[in-house]
Amino acid sequence: MVAAPDFRAGSRSNSPLSTPNHPGDTNVYRTLARVCGAVFRATIEETWDDATQLPVNGGVLVVANHVTNLDTLMLGRYLIWSGRWPRYLGKAELWKVPGIGWLGDRCGQIPVHRGTDKAADSLQPAKQALREGQCVAIFPEGHRTTDPGRWPDPKGRTGAARLALATGVPVVPVAHWGTHEIFPAKGFSLPRLWPRKHVEIKMGDPVDLGGLDDPDDREQVREATRRIMVTITSLVAELRGEPAPAC
Known about the structure:
This protein is 31% helix and 16% strand. It is of the alpha/beta class and 247 residues long. The protein has a single domain (2-240), classed as Glycerol-3-phosphate (1)-acyltransferase, CATH 3.40.1130.
């Protein structure tokens, strides 16, 4: 584990921020990445691993635990500096928030219409992105954790599993810990920046989905979801230095 890189590190020509491998408005996405980098470096102590499990090209599905509203920006910064610009799947309600919807569209993010007849169709843009060799990121819980101990929901939602089985791309798990010290898991409050908080991020080996290849088979989808959540929870336990509770 090493300290997160300075957002100013490297020249404009060799910095990951200079070469977005992403179909959205790269100027907007790059600006957002730089602003977040500046703010995080000034206010948060970040520790990352070197993300060697992340493919440098080709479609990849990144799955992570979800604790606070800060997670999307923190994980995005980590992935960008690891060489991949993510496209997130996010609940469509966020697109109604002033400014958030505009940013989501300009940065190529993908709204998911949960609980509607459009829910299944929401996965189509993500499937296409993965097949085109892009990086798609998703919080398979589908929401911030409701567990009192902030452990991932062992059930998860099936979207990540369906994407993985439909496309065959590697599913790379990521765990983070510490954002809850800055923002609450639920509700809204001003960030607690002092004393300076520490956030750790760790990537694991791709989830083993061997023997599973049918996104229309409910049992296979449930098993794939279980494996994904078990892997994420194991990584969270490593960061926390304590065993996860028995399911």
